[in-house]
Amino acid sequence: VQLVESGGGLVQAGGSLRLSCAASGFTFDGGAIGWFRQAPGKEREGISCIGRSYSSTYYADSVKGRFTISSDNAKNTVYLQMNSLEPEDTAVYYCASTGPYYYCSGFLTGYDYWGQGTQVTVSS
After folding, report:
1. How far apart are CA 19 and CA 101, in angstroms?
2. Per DSSP, what are the bridge partners of residue 121?
3. Pairing of strands 45-51, 2-6
């Protein structure tokens, strides 16, 4: 499984960005795609996920109401629309995939495949 993130950049507080995660190489159905982020000096935080075979989604409280996850199965791409960005959202954002026997949940576990990350910087 290969995952490639894109769409990061520099934006002012209150602005928006849309991240993309292009996925390929799946040999199984099921599982979930998640978005994680890691700011300097902080632990990695799971912020959202979406099921690959169904539209179940999850959002961490820190992004709920501001971020929206969606998928285009025809393009094998998962998006993270980020609105009302805050300086605290500054981080490297990663997408990741589980294997076939996990599902999207608030536990955000089972993510075995990871992209290289894309930097998001929000200026105040």
Report:
1. 26
2. 10
3. unpaired
Kindly indicate the confidence band of residue 106, based on its pLDDT and cuts at 50, 70 and 90: confident
DSSP for residue 79 = E
Instruction: Give the whole-angstrom CA distance, residue 59 versus residue 29.
Output: 22
Q: Which two tokens stand for residue 81?
A: 């629309």
Handedness of CA 23, 29, 35, 38 (dihedral sign): negative
Summarize pLDDT for 35-92 with one digit per residue, the tens: 999 999 999 999 999 999 877 999 999 999 999 999 998 889 999 999 999 999 999 9
23 by DSSP, 3-state: which? Answer: strand
Six-digit token pair at 44? 């990695």
Q: Are 56 and 69 in contact (CB under 8 A)?
A: no
Return the structure tokens found at 3: 């995952």
Nearest to 70 by CA among 86, 90, 60, 56: 56
Tokens 């799971």: give the residue: 46
Nearest Cα neighbor of 5 from 32, 41, 35 is: 35
